[in-house]
Amino acid sequence: MEENRLYTIIVHSENFSGILNQVAAVFTRLQVNIESLNVSASSMKDVHKFTITCNTSAKNIDKILKQINKKLDVINASCYTDDEIFQSEIAMFKISTDEFQNWEDTSRLLRGYNTHIVEITPDYLVVELAGSSEAINSLYRELDEINCVRQFVRSGRVAVTASTLEPVSSLLSRRDKRYCSRRNP
Amino acid sequence: MDTENNTLVSGSEALLRALIREGTDTVFGYPGGAIMPVYDALMDHMDEIEHILVRHEQAATHAAEGYARASGKPGVCLVTGGPGATNTLTGIADAMLDSTPIIVIAGQIAAAMIGTDAFQEVDFTCVTQPICKWSYQINSPDEISSVVARAFFVARSGRPGPVVLSITKDAQVGMTRYVPERVSYIRSYDHDPEIDITRIREAAAAINAAKRPFVLAGHGIELGGAQEEFRMFVEKGGLPFGCTLMGLSVLPSSHPLNKGMLGMHGNLCNNIKTNECDVLIAVGMRFDDRVTGDVSTYARQAKVIHLDIDPAEIGKNVRADIPVLGDCRKSLSMLTERLVKTDRSAWTESFRKYQDEEYDRVISKELYPGEGPLNMGEVVNAVSEATGHKAILVTDVGQNQMMAARYFRFTERLSIITSGGMGTMGFAVPAGIGACYARPDRTVCVFMGDGGLQMTMEEFGTIMEHRIPVKMILLNNNYLGNVRQWQQLFYDRRYSFTHLANPDFQILASAYSIPSRRVTCREDLEDAVSEMLASDGPFFLEACVAEEGNVMPMVPPGRSIDEMMMEC
User: Fold this and answer.
1) What does DSSP say about strands A124-131 and A85-96: parallel, antiparallel, or unpaired?
2) Cα A3 from Cα B29, distance rounded (Å)
3) Residue B323: its chain A contacts at CB < 8 A?
4) Alpha-carbon gap, residue A23 to A26, rounded angstroms
5) Closest to B57 measured CA to CA, from B75, B25, B83
6) Domain covering B373-544: architecture
7) Which chain A residues are closer than 8 Å to B154 by Cβ?
8) Whole-model pTM?
9) Which one of A22, A144, B155, B252 counts the least CB within 10 Å of its CB?
10) For A73-91, how does the pLDDT look when each residue is reduced to its tens digit (9 = 90+)?
11) CATH superfamily for domain B8-177
12) Which residues 95-114 of chain A have a CB within 8 Å of chain B?
């Protein structure tokens, strides 16, 4: 059995309805679970960007990329391992204050993770942490030990690549130029 | 035209004008509630569009496939929503796997009703997305012109495939100004990838240095209209080639470099030589498992050059040492230019030994058995001979398909129409109907088994109504023969539900006024085939063949391609 690892897939697509469905169907076909998914507008008008993470084999990731790239309205899709990207997530913790034995320690813990306090009430506080998946996991574990986490939510991963890649805008303009010159030789 | 730009027309009218503008002259369809406005508008265009009323929507898609494969133009079908639409799914998936350009236009309920589980509501766009090249729902009549133009461009460009358009009632009845549009480029879709000249140079050098090159010819050559470029390529290099099932008519069967079919029931020499060659050049084919057998032992010794227009195919099943992405019509010319004319007759001659072996052990027995019941192969051979090998061959799926592929011969391009990827039983009769409309100038011979025929037998009605001159040859062995063969060979002869109690097919044909003849002995065969070919309308020829005839040679499933069983 080939070993699974965590891949981050970045997809650029047109902003038409139904594309998320088509991209997700590629994972369903191969029975690969999506670990996290973030979809948003990109820096280019009418181009949407998907950041998807999944645990799978190198063989499957190759199939997944080829099948996503094959979708008509997908501009491009590529994948990265963690050492090839800078990644971040955001998490929100709703923490009950009752369990705090020692406010000093808790305060130190939250400061240590560079959290941002969103709201404080006599009963709870809401804390936000933006950072790597590992930092969020680690803070969750520490707070969970105190048994004070009342609600927890985290976003999908977003990432930028470490390598110098051709930006989608230049890929598109190069393609535009190539096809237009064929039409008007 | 000014009138076109300024006059308001219904969406249905705009749809028909857009279809006509894209060159549509034939539509296969079946009306129903959600597509009635389009059918109503169709009555005003009957001089430009011939509508063939099929008897089941699945048949409309296969007919459109047959039309597309015989003509090279997209086939069009028109159906209603709900069950009419879902009945087309098999044909859409079939067209996807066989890269066949068809446009399926399905009615959809009014937009305001969508999402309410209204009568005959199916989310057809969602259902079809995974099995077609592009699926889209038209909600407004103003979109029709541009969406239809896009649909045709998508269906026929790049690696062709099926496109599905679901059109809501609102879009059909709403008014719009029809402005003709043309699409020749979609920015997210690289339909004609740039050919990497470095790869061409590498490939040419590898072929020039090769002592034992072997070429695999696929359907992509026909789809790319590259038959002539392919001929120049193999002739200049002195390159022997084998064809995939879908690529059998790329060059005439009699071409000295054409060594026949590849794969599970292909010709022995090709499968042996695949594992002996030093350079394997795959052109417009996708290394289907029926071609490769056990992929871990497939052509391990060879340097593999893979020419394909679809990047998803390159390296998918077999590693490509030299991938050449792009339209093979262009890449083949670029390669041929760089080839050194080479005499490889000794290598090409080395195929002979295996051809002779196959002839002695399999072919001669199949074609000239001397006594006993009719063999499938000899019926195919008789029909092919009688047509001067000029006919279009349409097959169903199973033993009839493999026998037809093995023993039918070709002199013209675009002459094999079969369900290769999906293996859709019931494909043949409707696909034959489509082929007849695409090429009224050619004879269309449809081979089928008794199982497949009964899956789309309702199309006898379509054939009767339109007097479609399709020549149907039933190879009747009263079995689902291919499954029975596997049960015999790999399941200890346990014939689980493969025997068929069949009706009298001649009576059925006569109920539809289709002339027919039944042949049970070889003395009658030639005369029956002549009668069939001499008839000017449809004809149904039932050949009662050996019940337990087997298709040989055969690569047993999961085995290496060069381990062919020659008899059982």
Assistant:
1) antiparallel
2) 50
3) none
4) 6
5) B83
6) 3-Layer(aba) Sandwich (3.40)
7) 72
8) 0.95
9) A144
10) 999 999 999 999 999 999 9
11) Thiamin diphosphate (ThDP)-binding fold, Pyr/PP domains (3.40.50.970)
12) none
